[in-house]
Amino acid sequence: MELIETKTNNKVLASKQIVSEASSILRVKDLNVFAGHHHILKNVELEIPRNKITVLIGPSGCGKTTLLKCINKLTDLYKELKVSGSIFIDKDDILNTDTNIPALRQKMGLLSQRPYPLPVSIYKNVAYGLKLKGVRDKKLIDFSVEKHLREVGLWEEVKNRLNSPATRLSIGQQQRLCLARGLAVKPSIILADEPTSSLDPISSKIIENLFKDLTKHYTIILVTHVLRQAIRLADHVIFMNDGEIIEQGSPEILFKSPKTEQLRAYLVDGN
Amino acid sequence: MQIRRIFLDKVNGFWMVFSMITILIIPFIIGVGLYLKAAPLFENQSLLKLIFSSSWAPSTGEFGFWPFITGSLYVTLLSFLFTAPVCLFAAIYLTQFSSPGLIRVMHPVIDVLAGLPSVIYGVWGILVIVPFVSDYAAPFFGTSSSGYSVLSGGIVLAVMCIPYTLNMLIEVFNTVPNGLKEASLSLGATMWESVKHVVIRGNYPGIISAYGLGIAKAFGETIAVMMVVGNMVNTSGNPFEAAYPLPALIANNYGEMLSIPMYNAALMFAAFLLFIIILMINLFFRYLIHKTKRQ
Predict the structure, then answer these.
(1) pTM
(2) Domain boundaries, chain B
């Protein structure tokens, strides 16, 4: 009985707090992901507001990373995963149409838990996506590399060693390089999966400040386990548990007066 | 109790150092031993003449090793040309594209190939590859061949080396983190572009190392090659003609023809040459690995 009540409450909350369709850049409908018999994502329905930071929170293993991987179709890499439902980016359902997958992924920059610089120089890391897009003009590439390294505050630190291997940078610098690399392909959405979890507090703060600035031009979906970070950054919050969306809405409402016991318990433990 | 622990600590430390030193000095002992046994040969002929002369007439005291050196290099090069692309693409497919189930099926197959005695490869070469070369490959290129040839040796050697190189390449490619591939894909790369730029480029040292191991193994392989390569002194460079690699020379003749003066020393010199060439191959690949790592 209690479970039915909770689920009904969830649906009501979701319908009340959902972002208006016009302002949303991404809509997920009835998304289900199975790994064998394991139901990882269960009937996920959500909308992501444009040019805002949407923060996904929830306990480890609740499906946040899987949700991000569904959004840029990296689930295709894992043959054991079965994905069904719809993900609309603007009006295109990327799960159900013959989408140009590489072009689709370029719309969504990915920032992982730990930085993964490509095994080439700093310059080539940023130029990589541009070259994949077919840009061959050296001056344009040079301009873009400088612009995006400046955008993430890395230019002054690396301008004299652009041809050094990217792996020689510190972890914090590598993460900013990965962000610059992603921005260079002009994505609409940035998918950030706990991007500060392996960084020191100073580097984390730099990334957080960058995210705040980037919302002028980009939509950010951020997965984090750090509640204070979620409070600092979120314009919209989605709480997941056990593969389901439990609550979503503005941070003021969700963090101050959670409607479900699950979120209340998560916030209490998290703090 | 405390004294016993310290004693065990020191004993184990000693054994570790002892084991390491033993492994280090074994190649040195082998090299010096072979050199000393071959030394009488240097009294009559210069080292350069021994290496670069093509005249092989033991009964008149002429020992030119050039045909044997080139025979070994030629067979090894051919086997490398067959092995390198096959192993590279198979390892990429198995680690990057196939389902985990296929790798589980392939591993025992690769292990069986690696575990087969080389004489079985030799017999297979005589039954399948030699007739194939004489009946199909040679006529296809407008020539004739008995089938006992450099090409047969190269093919048999390639098949023998595949499991070693493939196993190592699979291990190398499995070390690529999924996050790196995901990063490349999310920048708009196709799967093949990601493989090219991330999996291959990021693993040059590992790939070179796998190939180096395969070449060193191929160069020293004896029985299977000896059974199909024809064992005739020849420097023509024609892949459809026979050759005589260094290991086959030693295996065919050691312990025989002791009545010929210096023959034993000549065979020891062949073994010493083999030892030096394999050492040089390994050092060359070490250098390549070091260079690519720095880059």
Answers:
(1) 0.81
(2) 2-43, 47-294
